[in-house]
User: Fold this.
Amino acid sequence: EAFAALLDHLGIARVAVAGGSAGALSAAAFALRHPERCSHLVLLVPAANVSGRDPVEMNWWQKWAVDTVLGSDFLFWALIRTMPRRLIGTLLATDPALLDRVPADERRRAFAVLEGLMPIGMKRRGLVNDATLAGAPAALDFSRIAVPTLIISLEDDRFGTAATARAIAVAMPDARLVIYPTGGHIWLGHDEDIADEITRFLASSAWAAR
Assistant:
């Protein structure tokens, strides 16, 4: 509803909507509630519990560690400087070994994603809220979304979004599903591929005519 109000304020009647990670939930909800205002829907690495079980289950120690890191700008800054690959593997759910197999610009993008989380303390509540909503059983009926939809994920995403993407695609048989074998949650090594995929989807006259 906030998205619809924003479009009203900007004087925009209809727009293509893309949501990544936990943002895929609100993007899908917008398409479901306001199909007349959503020309295309892109769900990128959708982090959502569609099976009744959180795809990212952590033990008490992992939860404590994440809460501690997210609550301290200094600690997070120190970890970025001392063990960025560990953060990429945990917080960004991407195999850090991929860093040695992708072009330099993709390595820079991965580290830029980490840097972009600073100041982490100011974003803690939002990050925790995202994780809570993604882990709770989804109340969305994806089968009722009538908007042309593209779903993209990666097989080795440590947040389990490939399984989520497949489940959503089953509920939406007309949706286009694209899953890359590697790249993790930040689609490392596939930034241009995914941009091209989305561009083709948005430009497709077959989809736009629906």
